[in-house]
Structure formats: structure tokens, C-alpha cells
Prior knowledge:
Layout (H helix, E strand, L loop, with lengths): L1 H14 L5 H19 L14 H17 L7 H15 L14 H27 L5
Helix pairs in contact: 2-3, 2-4
Amino acid sequence: VNGLMTLGFAGAHQQTELCNESLMLEKLPACGRSFEEMMKKVDSKKWCNLTEFIMYYDNFTQCTEREANNASCFWPNPLAEGFITGIHKQFFSNCTSEKVHWEDPPDEILITLILIPVMLTCAMITLVVWCSKRSDIL
Length: 138
């Protein structure tokens, strides 16, 4: 029991270390430079296609997380997020999603799409009423 208590207190002590923000901010740019070098291998026209660089981005994310943890900081944190946002602005600022403009179908198609279920409903009601009046045959 004493061993477990000691481990528990040691774990609690390790978690109370203060985040060394200046160390983290000093180390994060190395992750950005590494990502930048990897992104040079990808045609800039394909920077909006995540499948083209997903491994590079994963390495970048792991690097930022590792450096934050080495500086006794949790991840993500506001400073790391600010750094990551800067990288996003540098590489992905032109990757805007185009909004889909929805339009109603032409009136002829719209009327058909409305009338078919209405007519089927009326036909089913008529069939049920007619069959219930002719229960002697069934």
C-alpha cells in the first residue's frame, strides 16, 4: 500500500510542474520548419487535398504535441494552437470550401414530385375503405 501511495504522490507531483511556455515556443518552430520542408515535396496546387500530405501533417501534429509535453505543457494549449493556426494560414489560406447553392427543381418536376405521393395516398385510402365495405368476400 505504501508503494502505491508513493507512486500516486509522485505522479501527482509530476503533473504539478509548471508549463515552460518559453521553451515550448522556442521548440515549436522546428516542427514548422520540418513541415515546411515536407510540404515542398507536394505541388502547391494539391495543398488543399489532405490525402496528398496527411502523413506530413500527422508528423507535424505529433511534433507539436511532443514539444509541448517536453516543456511540461498540456496539448493543445492556446500558444500551440496559435502556432498551428499560423501554419494553417501559411499553407491552407486558399483552401476555402465552396458553398453549394441549392435550387428548386423546375415547376413541372416539383408538381410531379408532390402529386405522386398525394395520389398514392388517396388510392390507398380508397382501397382500404372499399375492402372494409366488402369484408363478406374476404
